[in-house]
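Below is a filled-in request sheet from our internal design queue. Each sheet records the structural input a requester submitted and the sequence that came back. We keep these sheets so that new team members can see what a complete request looks like end to end.

REQUESTER: design group, bay 2
PRIORITY: normal
MODE: inverse folding
CHAIN LENGTH: 185
BACKBONE (tokenized):
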């Protein structure tokens, strides 16, 4: 059992609220972990929300992805009149990519995508294009036809990978720049 006083956490640049008494184990063993802060034991939980992302004890991102897709669909439905209007197709596509995809892909750089998650993301992308073009699922229009109508390709997964690469390149450039500054001194 660990017992720490909150002042020790401030030294590590961390802030732990005693009022939020939750603890998450990021492993699959079933041994209980007891952490005490000011003689109060933290509760072990299966998942919790931190900085807008859902963290689970198994480390998977499926719950987070489903949540993000639901938020993006809700945002789309709020502005459905705009996205399905008679505005120029290119403008509507840019609005969807800017407004909807930014909601759906928030934090995607950290996701570990499984095949199931990839299918959910691709189906949500097709859902947006179908709603934008007012194509019902009962019309039996194939996805390839929908993509031709909106003059797009499936690229939501490409955007996620591109975002990861951009983040990696930025990190490498910043690291190289900082190490160069340190060497000059």
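RETURNED SEQUENCE:
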């Amino acid at each position: 059992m660990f017992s720490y006083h909150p002042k020790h956490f401030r030294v590590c640049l961390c802030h732990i609220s005693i009022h939020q008494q939750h603890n998450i184990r990021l492993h699959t063993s079933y041994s209980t972990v007891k952490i005490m802060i000011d003689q109060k034991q933290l509760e072990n939980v299966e998942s919790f929300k931190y900085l807008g992302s859902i963290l689970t004890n198994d480390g998977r991102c499926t719950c987070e992805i489903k949540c993000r897709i639901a938020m993006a669909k809700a945002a789309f439905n709020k502005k459905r009149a705009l996205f399905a209007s008679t505005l120029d197709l290119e403008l509507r596509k840019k609005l969807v990519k800017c407004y909807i995809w930014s909601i759906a892909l928030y934090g995607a750089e950290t996701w570990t995508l499984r095949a199931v998650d990839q299918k959910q993301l691709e189906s949500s992308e097709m859902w947006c294009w179908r709603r934008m073009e007012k194509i019902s699922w009962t019309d039996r229009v194939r996805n390839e036809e929908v993509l031709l109508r909106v003059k797009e390709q499936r690229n939501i997964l490409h955007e996620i990978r591109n975002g990861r690469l951009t983040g990696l390149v930025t990190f490498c450039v910043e690291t190289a720049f900082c190490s160069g500054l340190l060497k000059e001194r």
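SHEET NOTES:
- The chain has two domains: 2-45, 62-175.
- The chain has seven helices and seven strands.
FILED BY: M.R.
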